[in-house]
Amino acid sequence: MYNKISQLRPFRLDTVAAIIGLLLALTLLPLRLVASQIYLNTVPFVLGTACALYLLALYQRDTTTALPRLPRPVAMTLPSVVLAGLGALVVLTVLQGARTPVFFAVASVLATLVVAQILFTSEEEFNRRLLLLQIVLFALVFRFTALYATPGYIGIDVWTHMEFVEAIYAEESLSAISHDKHYASPFYHLLVVASSLLLDVPLRLGLYLSVGVLMPLSVLLVYATTNLLISERWAVLATALFALASHVSMWGLHLIPTSLGLVFFLAILYALIRVMRIEYTMRDFSLLILLSVAVILTHQVSTFITLVLLLAAFVAQVVFVVGPFGLTRLDTSVFRAKKPVNLIGLVVFNFGLTIFVWSLTPYREQSFLATVLSFFTQTLEESAGFLNIASGSTGDEAAEAGAGAAPTLLEQAVPYIDALGFLFLLGATFAGCLYVVHRRRAEQSVFTLLLAAAIMLVFVLVLPMFGIRNFIPTRWFAFLYAPMAILGAIGLRTLVRGLSPRVVVSVLLLFALIYPGAMLFAVESNAENPVFSDQHEQLAYNEAELAAVSSIGDLTGGPDGQDIRPDQQLHTDHPYQTVISRTGAYPSTTTATVPDDGVADHEYVVYRAEQSTDATYFNDENGEGRIEQVSQDRLCQPHHATVYTNGEVTMCTPSPAT
């Protein structure tokens, strides 16, 4: 068997990598028995499948490449169907007052139709401009329907950032936030204020018309980047894969500095790949420097992720100058041959400016740099360890929520539904990585994507398994999806060219039918009104809940945190406690402790109807957070007096009689 395979295809780097990937997948399988974690259960299967399909594509004897294409009338009709469907989504949201499961079902069908057009339209009917228009319009409609239907804001951190924006707007000076770490990275806040002033609109609308509009438009940067590497069809596919990604949609709904940081990251990725693919000038490098400064002045986590990208590009440069690829000339039919670009100056500039700015950034009575290093050192000393899996991922939260009771089939399935789109894209990315490590195809630009994706996967998947979450891995996924979408498109193109038509059609149909819906039904895409509302908390509030926040602030006088005694701390569910504290209505607000089958023992509590019907978080008697549905009498006790109620939200305090 060995001799037969070696005669068909002499062993080379991509072949060896695929075989090693198969062996690694088999090695990782037993970890499922050691720890219960969704990625431990699924990634080995994804890796093994991707490697097996790639090897099959290498050794497939059937060289037929003809694929079924959509009939011409169907291909010409589908764009109109998609555009009409997008209009129906708007009408549906207006009529129902929210994005409901019906909305997401219709949106999934429309997204599948877009992907099907990309994959199965003939060359004569393929129109990249029309497809890109559909992708951008879909992204706009999908995000802005949520923003339109939601009173207030979607998410948690946005309330704090908009408080900063309002302070800057009122004082007309950055000194209004001089106490906070964002004083050194204020670009997001200044952009929102400037948009509000220039467009003469309220700050909330200024946010939506600036950062909110930039997010869906920024997906075009993925197209521009991918088209530097591969043909238009697959560049459009990469754009669709990225635009539909759940975490990308989330930062289009939860509009915070991370969102703007993602836009700058995509621009840096494009500029970086561009200088590696064309005869660049100083203007191109000047753009890279300008974008680097912009991301540093926007968001600290985005800055660190950008440094990872630049480090990957520098390592790729070293590999092609002194490494095993240094003497190999490229196959110009795959990627244009080009001498590796020297990036040492750009990397040093970014690291130097980042350290300088972080050293001056105030954070918890120290500099941001000192505080972050202190936290990381503490984590390594106290909680880091192999398979010391920290909570925080969707799968882990669902597991905790079901602890103490046998989980239902839905409770077991929801974490896999949330992760399904990512796993599909991960499989395509593995295939793309195997393709680009072939010596004839290896090039600095694609190796930059490969190394960046690999390093970022370590931060989001591997380090949390060792109890290290200091780098906030949930913020990385949207950034990770950019190189993954590009490599994934390359991977699917590879399988299409190597596998038999029957297998290719099966792979592409599965991808087109499952990936869009899985991404749109994932919790990150519907945080304002979760599809699985008994499994995921709602990160948005209705009019009554927001009115209660304002009334609590008026009732209590909005005291400063230091003026509130420990026994006067306000307790309610998470995430509702965050909006009460972050808006300044009652700064000393935290998550209530509600024992299993017991009642809370707090003096000041807030109950809302959401706590009895959908997923909200409370602490148990051990201080561990878990999803719990509670009735009003488990928070408000007989010795309490009701000082405020509007029918949906009730505030209870100690009765004067007691």
TrEMBL record:
Keywords: Membrane, Transmembrane, Transmembrane helix
Residue ranges crossing the lipid bilayer per the database entry: 12-32, 38-57, 78-96, 102-120, 132-154, 205-222, 256-273, 285-301, 307-328, 340-360, 416-437, 449-472, 478-496, 503-523
Organism domain of life: Archaea
Protein name: Glycosyltransferase RgtA/B/C/D-like domain-containing protein
Organism in which the protein naturally occurs: Natrialba chahannaoensis JCM 10990
The organism's taxonomic lineage, starting at the top: Archaea, Methanobacteriati, Methanobacteriota, Stenosarchaea group, Halobacteria
